[in-house]
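User: Can you help me understand a structure? I only have the sequence.
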Amino acid sequence: MHRHGTFGDDTFGRFAENAARFFGTPEYIVGQTIVVIVWIALNVIGGIHHWDPMPFIMLNLIFSTQAAYAAPLILLAQTRQADRDKIVSDEVDKRHTILEQGMKGETDKLLDLLQSNTTLTKQDKDLTEEVAKLAREIHTLLTASRGAT
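Assistant: Let's start by predicting it. Here is the structure, written out as tokens:
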């Protein structure tokens, strides 16, 4: 099922999520490291035009700009993911509530059946005792009438 985050299913939101995923990859870290090494090497080695001599202010500016954009993109991606997680969590909670209500209904039915069974068992015991009492009385009456004859 497709979910829409805070900013909908817009191109910018998808871009933010893809950027956030990319910033966390080993390929990005290795690639950035290679660029920094090459940048520094080209600006330190003699005989080459140094467009960013030490202390590499332009490189620092590029990193600052990158961080200024990367952080909000990552936060936007996290917000969109949190919204999707909330929707899924709410659906799971609803399903659990429905299951709990169903289980409560079934448990209540089972308790009613057990109570009915207990009542029937007591009635059966009472009737059995009554039949036994009547059987004793009939036996007493029959033995008394035979003795009288």
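Now, to help you interpret it: The chain is about 85% helix and 0% strand. The first helix runs from residue 11 to 23. Let me know which part you'd like to focus on.
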